Amino acid sequence: MPGKTRTLLRKLLKVSMALAISLSLSGCNIGCWFAPCDLALEVTARVRDPSGAPVRGAHVDVLGHAGETDENGCVELNGVIHTHELDLHATALEFKPYDQQKPYDLYEVDIVLEPVTSAKPSSGTWKTESSQGSPLQCGNGTPG
């Protein structure tokens, strides 16, 4: 019996070590076994120039989820992310880029891209659904 118990314990140790190594290499923690570690990405961005006119065709990227703005200067980015910080980049020809990091939340971002000839940097105003008290809105007045 002691020989069988020892063999069983060795097998159990090998399986435990393999499981521990695979978990550490995958980046997941034990908490992910009981609750999802993934987060929903929902960002609506409105890109305008300094006069308030929409910038059509601006490229907006949040953690690899990217899109181009429509005729209203709006783009909606949705997906699944694995981080608790958002990193947004907005670019358009003949405008200065806008880059900003924020803690995870569901956002509407109102971006003003400054022309490359401007002395001012491009800027953005970040709003959450809870800070607005109403559904997120885009340039056309419909919920994002």
CATH topology of the largest domain: Immunoglobulin-like
Q: Which strands sit side by side, in order, in the main sheet?
A: 4-1-7-8
Strand content bin: 35-45%
Question: Which architecture of the largest domain would the CATH scheme give at its second level?
Answer: Sandwich
Distance between the termini: 67 Å
Strand runs, count: 8
Number of helices: 2
Helix content: 10-25%
Query: Which stretches are poorly predicted, pLDDT < 50 over at least 5 residues?
Result: none
Number of domains: 2
Overall shape: rod-shaped
Q: So, the CATH homologous superfamily of the largest domain?
A: Carboxypeptidase-like, regulatory domain
Q: Sketch the major β-sheet.
A: 4 strands, mixed
Give an overview of the whole structure.
By secondary structure, this protein is α+β, with helices and mostly antiparallel strands. It folds into 2 domains: 2-33; 39-132, Carboxypeptidase-like, regulatory domain (Immunoglobulin-like), CATH 2.60.40.1120. Helix content is 20%, strand content 35%. The chain has helices spanning 2-26, 129-132; strands at 39-48, 59-62, 65-68, 74-81, 85-91, 98-103, 107-112, 123-128. A 4-stranded mixed β-sheet has the order 4-1-7-8. It has a 4-stranded antiparallel β-sheet with strand order 3-2-5-6, with no helix packed on it. Strand 2 (59-62) and strand 3 form a beta hairpin. The protein is rod-shaped. 19% of the residues are buried. The model has no long low-confidence stretch (mean pLDDT 79).
What's the short story on this structure?
By secondary structure, this protein is an alpha+beta fold. It has two helices and eight strands, in the order αββββββββα.
